[in-house]
Write a structure and sequence with these properties.
alpha/beta; 7-stranded parallel β-sheet; 11 strands
Length: about 325
């Protein structure tokens, strides 16, 4: 007799193949969850073609039912890339509530999982919160010590001060407290986030990383470097935001390079901190050995992995 699998509705605003960061988290969680559960995934309409093209080339043993939605053009003309993403996400959650309700009721789904975005300050479907509500992994309880943040640009120092303020007042946030109360299970990216959950609801919270990556074959990472390359190559990848610590990596690498002239560092990614990091590299005289390569394709990223000796996360 075939055992009936549990049905879960997953809200994954950020969910697309062959990308990293939050989008990659959404995608790889969905693929992994489909091995154990029957899942319906709500994501953006703009992700549809990429998802369907990928699934056509990589058919999955278990069906994943995708539900797509984007705001009408008149409500999203102002959004470009990450600009305006917070307001867009707020409206997207509000306007998809009927879709969540219809899909869950029509298919007899009792479990609602808000997967992305994993920010404790951001809203969830009103209907989904009334069901068995799984929230996360979420984060928002962490801030950067001032010893590091004081070196940021003015804009990023202001952003960090706002982050500290939001963490301090988090217990007073009515939306946050309501989600803590309604959630049946709260997954927290860090222990600091778990501690930020009000004590009366903390028994429902557990520390659970959101890291999700594609498992690659061993052969894919066999060394293909050219014969005679004696350099020790470091690779670091991520969005170039001030709080991610790439400035610390660059300064540490400069000190290490003084001891060993054969070291090289590549940094992949783009972001608001690019110019500050470039200026730092120039001031340290490291432009010949540290490169900011910008955002690259997944295929190019994998190739760079094969020729690197060390992957470092600052």
């Amino acid at each position: 007799m075939t055992q009936t699998r549990i049905k879960i509705f997953v809200s994954a605003y950020a969910c697309e193949p062959d990308l990293g960061s939050e989008i990659g988290v959404g995608w790889h969680w969905v693929l992994e969850m489909s091995k154990y559960f029957d899942i319906w995934v709500l994501t953006r309409q703009s992700n549809q073609k990429t998802i369907e093209d990928w699934l056509e080339v990589n058919p999955q043993p278990n069906t994943i039912r995708f539900v797509y939605y984007d705001l009408p053009e008149k409500l999203r003309f102002w959004k470009k890339g990450l600009r305006g993403v917070r307001l867009y996400y707020l409206l997207w959650q509000r306007l998809t509530n009927k879709i969540v309700r219809h899909t869950m009721e029509q298919n007899g789904i009792e479990i609602y999982h808000l997967l992305t975005y994993g920010n404790a300050l951001w809203p969830a479907s009103h209907y989904g919160q009334q069901r068995f509500f799984i929230w996360g992994p979420i984060g928002t309880g962490d801030t950067i010590p001032w010893e590091f943040a004081r070196h940021y640009s003015f804009r990023d120092r202001v952003v960090e001060e706002m982050r500290r303020f939001l963490v301090r007042v988090l217990p007073l946030n009515p939306g946050f407290r309501a989600r803590c109360r309604k959630a049946a299970l709260i997954l927290c990216k860090t222990e600091n986030t778990r501690q930020s959950i009000p004590e009366k609801y903390r028994h429902k919270a557990m520390t659970f990383s959101d890291v999700a990556v594609e498992v690659s074959s061993k052969q894919e990472f066999e060394n293909i470097r050219q014969f005679g390359d004696t350099c020790i190559r470091y690779l670091s990848v991520g969005r170039l935001d001030a709080w991610r610590g790439f400035d610390l990596l660059i300064q540490a690498f400069a000190l290490a390079h003084n001891q060993n002239q054969n070291l090289r560092l590549e940094i992949l990614g783009h972001g608001n901190d690019h110019e500050r990091l470039k200026d730092l590299i120039d001031r340290l005289g490291m432009a010949d050995v540290i490169s900011l390569e910008g955002q690259v394709s997944l295929e190019e990223y994998r190739l760079k992995m094969t020729v690197s000796d060390v992957v470092v996360n600052p």
